């Protein structure tokens, strides 16, 4: 069996990057929405409706990304604790 190697620093970095990217995306979508709303009144009804539907999908996807980033961050703590605890007692983490 190949020993399983985990880089706790890399896991923490990736979780932080996920959170930062999710926040950046949410901010970008907010700016785009602000810009679009300035012109929305002049749009035809079908275009206005299409935008509203698309925005609802964007908002839902952004919320899902935020939940995933939060879950990843919350999971990192126990993963780190178990990994360090295993190393402390000489446990070798191996792939099945």
Protein described:
- The protein is mainly alpha-helical.
- Helix 1 runs antiparallel to helix 2.
- It is rod-shaped and about 70 Å long.
- The mean pLDDT is 81.
Annotation keywords:
96 residues
Write the layout of secondary structure elements.
Blueprint lengths: L7 H33 L4 H44 L8
Q: Helical proportion? A: over 70%
Mean pLDDT: 81
The total of beta strands comes to 0
Question: What is the beta-strand fraction?
Answer: under 5%
What is the count of DSSP helices, taking H or I runs of 4+ residues?
A: 2
**Outline type:** rod-shaped
Topology as a string of helices (H) and strands (E): HH
Give Rg in angstroms. 21 Å
**What structural class do helix, strand and pairing data support?**
mainly alpha
Q: Could you tell me how far the N terminus lies from the C terminus, measured between alpha carbons in angstroms?
A: 7 Å
Poorly predicted segments: none
The major pleated sheet works out as:
none
């Amino acid at each position: 069996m190949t020993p399983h190697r985990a880089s706790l620093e890399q896991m923490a970095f990736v979780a932080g990057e996920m959170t930062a990217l999710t926040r950046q995306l949410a901010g970008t979508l907010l700016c785009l929405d602000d810009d679009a709303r300035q012109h929305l009144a002049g749009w035809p009804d079908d275009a206005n409706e299409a935008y509203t539907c698309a925005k609802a999908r964007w908002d839902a996807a952004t919320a899902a990304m935020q939940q995933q980033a939060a879950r990843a961050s919350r999971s990192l703590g126990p993963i780190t604790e178990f990994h360090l605890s295993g190393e402390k007692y000489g446990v070798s983490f191996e792939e099945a």
